[in-house]
Amino acid sequence: MDYQVNYIHPKIKISCYTGKLFKTEAAFDEHLLVWLLSGETKIIQADESFVFGAGSTFLIPRHQLATIINYPKDGWPHKAVAMHLSADQLRDFYKKNDIKPKNLLSHKIFTFDNHPLLKSCLASLNPYFELQETFPDNLAKLKITEAIAIIRNIAPDIDGILANFDKPHKIDLAAFMEKNFMFNMPLEKFGYLTGRSLTTFKRDFYHHYQLTPQRWLTQKRLELAHYQLTQKNRKPAEVYLETGFENLSHFSYAFKKKYGYAPKDLYLGMRI
Predict the structure, then answer these.
(1) In 80-212, which residue ranges form alpha helices assigned H by DSSP?
(2) Where is the HTH araC/xylS-type domain positioned along the sequence (predicted)?
């Protein structure tokens, strides 16, 4: 099997991927702390991209749209330990420690530069992945609390993210969609992130664009793909990964239907 995941607790897991690449579209409901043991991870957001190599530790904040592409590298699989930081445990942490952060932030991917304290904390989880019995819940909470304390010590500004428990509020739908159309999310998720129910999202969307969300999203993604191919001279196999398409064949079919030629023909033509 190309992909394996082992949960020692609902909030702590280790994953291993040996295929060519593994792509997912993310807008996590909880913050995700990741320690990359081997391989490479590319995270693409609307206005910034990140590439993480083996040994990296980073935090992906909740509710942030991103395309995440995981690659094996240098003969090693993509292998990572991930820890979910739930709102309940974070609220409990800040309450017990009487911490009242200011300047709450909505998003920012944090990197921790292979800090020895954090590396030691996450490395201490490795023996537990060999356990046959259930990992005790109280011990898992202690390990998560330890990780929270360490990343706060490393990056004090992170309080602005970890202590922000607000739910998405109603925002400008058009501005949000123009910035985030390339992320292949369910419409329910787009609605939630703009502070709307699915019904209200569809109604407001049609009122603004006079198109259904599905048709508008396909058009915008194809336009972006065409730009990447013609102006950036990128390969179709790279472009579809970052423009919201499920796979290369679906991308090629939709692209040819709109433009009359396949993306590979355009790419080869640019090479001649």
Answers:
(1) 87-96, 116-123, 137-154, 159-162, 173-180, 187-193, 198-209
(2) 171-269
Tokens representing 263 are: 């993306």
* Residue 68 near residue 80 (C-beta atoms within 8 A): no
What CATH number has the domain bearing residue 119? 2.60.120.810
Measured between alpha carbons, how far is 50 from 41 in angstroms, rounded to an integer? 8
Residue range(s) defining the domain that contains residue 229: 173-271
Same domain, yes or no: 130 and 14: yes
- Cα(first)–Cα(last) distance of the chain, in Å? 40
Amino acid of residue 46? A
Cα separation, 260 vs 97, in Å, equals: 62
Distant-in-sequence, close-in-space partners of 171: CB < 8 Å, separation ≥ 6: 194, 195
Q: Which backbone phi and psi does 56 adopt, to 5 degrees? A: -70, 145
Give yes or no: residues 142 and 195 share one domain.
no
Per-residue pLDDT at 97: 86
Model pTM? 0.88
